[in-house]
Amino acid sequence: MSCQPSIHWSCRTDEEFLADVAIPKSALRCGSDLRALSKRELLGIFVALRARHICDVGKATEDEGRMIESESDLLLSRYLFPRRQDTYKFQMAISAMRGETLFDEHETGHPVTFADFLEGMYRDRHGPTQENTNAFKTHTVSTTSY
User: Fold this and answer.
1) For residues 42 and 58, is the Cβ–Cβ distance under 8 A?
2) Whole-number Cα distances in Å, 66 to 46, 76, 97
3) What are the distances in angstroms from CA 1 to CA 5, 10, 13, 14, 19?
4) Collapsed DSSP state (helix, strand, coil) of residue 110
5) Distances in whole angstroms, Cα of residue 95 to Cα of each of 1, 12, 77, 111
6) pTM of the shown model
7) What 3-state DSSP class applies to 66?
8) I need a surface site. Which of 5, 68, 109, 124 has the fewest CB within 10 A?
9) Domain residues of the chain, as ranges?
């Protein structure tokens, strides 16, 4: 918006705004981003921000247990706003960290065994293309998306 007295009030178009930010089209399509939020969804955002703070404190103090403490807030946030992509990615990463503490590497439920399950499930669904075979092995989830 322009606040200069000689210029009338104006706003960029959606296309101009989207050209400047990195919001995936899937986030717009599923209702994760750039729309009015309900009170419940807004509360979910605030809870996710609290989780982010707890996780950041854990990172700063190199306390993985503290980072894992953020999981309960992330789960609550996802309950309140299940379509929020950033919270989904963040929660999945933290829940994988929790899985490492709950299971030995060879046990069903450990992130490694779950990763094998997911890779098989999606390979069957989408076919074993080079792209989706390598995507799982090279993709990392950032807990800094907020």
Assistant:
1) no
2) 19, 17, 11
3) 12, 5, 11, 13, 16
4) strand
5) 41, 39, 14, 9
6) 0.74
7) helix
8) 5
9) 1-35, 36-138
For the chain, how many residues are written?
146
Question: Looking at residue 146, what DSSP letter applies?
Answer: -
Which amino acid, residue 146? Y
| Whole-number Å distance between alpha carbons of 93 and 142 | 8
Q: Read off the pLDDT of residues 104-135 as tens digits, 9 standing for 90 and up.
A: 998 989 999 988 888 888 887 877 665 555 55
Q: What would the 3-class secondary structure string for 70-109 be?
A: CHHHHHHHHHHCCCCHHHHHHHHHHHHHHHHHHCCCCCEC
Listed in sequence order, the residues at least 6 apart from 88 whose beta carbon sits closer than 8 Å to its beta carbon are 78
The Cα 16–Cα 119 span in angstroms is: 37
